[in-house]
Known about the structure:
CATH topology: Nucleotidyltransferase, domain 5
Number of helices: 5
CATH architecture: 2-Layer Sandwich
Number of domains: 1
Low-confidence stretches: none
Order of helices and strands: EEEHEHEHHEH
Radius of gyration: 18 Å
CATH superfamily: ATPase, nucleotide binding domain
Distance between the termini: 70 Å
Structural class: alpha/beta
CATH class: Alpha Beta
Number of strands: 6
Strand order of the largest sheet: 3-2-1-4-5-6
Shape: elongated
Helix content: 40-55%
Mean pLDDT: 80
Amino acid sequence: MEEVTIIGVDLAKNLFQLHGAAADGTVVFRKKLSRPQFARFMANHPACEVAMEACPSAHHWAREISRHGHEVRLIAPIYVKPFIKRQKNDRRLPTSPLTVCAKVGPRALQRIISRGFLLTLALHHSRRLLASDLEQGAKM
């Protein structure tokens, strides 16, 4: 069995689709795992590169995965879209995660947002909404 150098993860509500690839781009495995199974799998898997589309839950999973020594790459959704073939079908998503990471380049990568920063963003957003509501009430 070849050594997995990169794992592509398609996050969903309940089941995550994983595509493991070797250094030459050949697909070593494809797995469909639930959230607890995914957490256990990543904890037990040797450290490697993990690529996933950036979304709100991706930042949470990136923090969890990086605790186990994996290098996480979050790819902006606009750069993942060209690699989707036909309709959204997790089984057919990226043909090779290595190919996706190689072709998108560093401009498409996003940094992992810390939990504290997310809380600060939520606070500012709530404050902005409250100020907007107060302005609307004053105009009436």
